[in-house]
Amino acid sequence: MPKKILLTIAILITATGIGLYAYLPELQSNSSEKQPPATVEVVRSSLQTRVSETGTIQPSKTIEIKSQFSGEVAQLFVSSGKPVKKGEVLAIIRQESSQARQVAQLRAAIQEERLNVNTAQREWVRSQSLFTKGFISQQDLETSEHNYQRTLVRLELAERQLLLALGGNKELFQRYQEGATQHTRPEEFQVLSPTDGTVLEILVNAGEIITSGTATFGGGTILMKLADLSRMIVKAKINEVNIPRVAVNQDVDIRLDALPGQSFQGTVIGIATQGVKTENIVSYEVTIAIDTQNKVLKPMLTANVDIVTKQLENVLTIPLETLRVENGDDVVEVLIDDVPKIRRVRVAFRTDTQAVITQGIQEHDKVIIPSFEAEKSPH
Question: Is 54 left (phi over 0), alpha (psi -120 to 50) or beta?
């Protein structure tokens, strides 16, 4: 009895398998017919190409403040972040003792040369009188005049040396010439703001010894930095691969990490001629003006910039994935009356995701999106 039951079950399983095997191709065929190929409609749209990079917000103008004189920082009148006006006193520098001695020596030399000029001038006037009366020769008269001219040259040289020692400060030089300065202690000099702006940072402290910005090699000590925060810009380094696509006057979209969800518009106003090589990567600095200024813009904020390098309007576009190459030509498959037809097309422009088509298809055509199953070869 059990053997008969087992035999019956085996026969049923075999029959069922044969039936499924015979019916399976028909199921697969019906399934394929019910799934038409995926398509996308050819449409007219606007297309942009962009160069994206990260930069930093910076003031449009930054000034390094230095002293014309070496010495000690006697007093600072400003702090970081303080607005200042043109001509406002920023600091007082007390002249260092060595420079004070040099100035004293040069002033003494000037006084001596002035005495020599007066003496030589009187001698020349006297010689002119004697020559008129016939008491001296023409040569003696010329010698007297030459001596007078030489004293004038030496006086001018001494005055130039004093002006150089004073860092070219003509106002202070005039005060020395008029004797309106202290003789018993080092002079104190005011450092004035050359323009309206805001103090970005203070780089010295009261009591520090600084070097002159005009009398030393290397430019001297930077006391502080001023900036015009009313006009901010973005500085971004663009890779050499993308820099040929960037041009002055291109529009820029700017987003800040500090202000998510808020964007600013800008314009490219400058491209560096000289590139910079860092770790075998060459980049060029691009300057971007921000169209609308805002007090929330602070120096050194990180800015993500998208430079619009090309803008195309009302063009036929299709997804890049619908294109393929046959015999060196770009082709697409177009669904016409539910039948796929291959069309050769002309591609005018490509982005990372879209292609602009100028010939071969029309607006509202249905372009087939290739599937992996369609690309598989039959076994």
Answer: beta
Spatial distance between the Cα atoms of 118 and 202, rounded to a whole number of angstroms: 50
SS3 228: coil
Q: Is the pLDDT of residue 271 over 80?
A: yes
Reported as a single tens digit per residue, the pLDDT across 291-300 is: 888 888 899 9
User: How many domains does the chain divide into?
Assistant: 4
Place of tokens 């529009």: 251
CATH number at residue 281: 2.40.30.170
Q: Are 90 and 192 in contact (CB under 8 A)?
A: yes
Helix, strand, coil shares of the chain, percent, nearest 5, are 30, 40, 30
What is the extent of the structural domain holding 195?
Answer: 66-96+186-228
Residues contacting 75, CB < 8 A, separation 6+: 91, 92, 206
Residues 339 and 306 in one domain: no
Pairing state of beta strands 83-84 and 222-227? unpaired
Query: Do 250 and 150 belong to one domain?
Result: no
| pTM, two decimal places | 0.60
Residue 2 has pLDDT above 60, yes or no: no
Residue 105 CA, distance from chain mean position = 48
Find out whether 176 and 166 touch, Cβ atoms under 8 Å.
Answer: yes
Residue 348 pLDDT grade (very low, low, confident, very high; cuts 50, 70, 90): confident
Task: Give, in order, the Cα–Cα distances in Å from 98 to each of 71, 212, 223.
Answer: 9, 13, 21
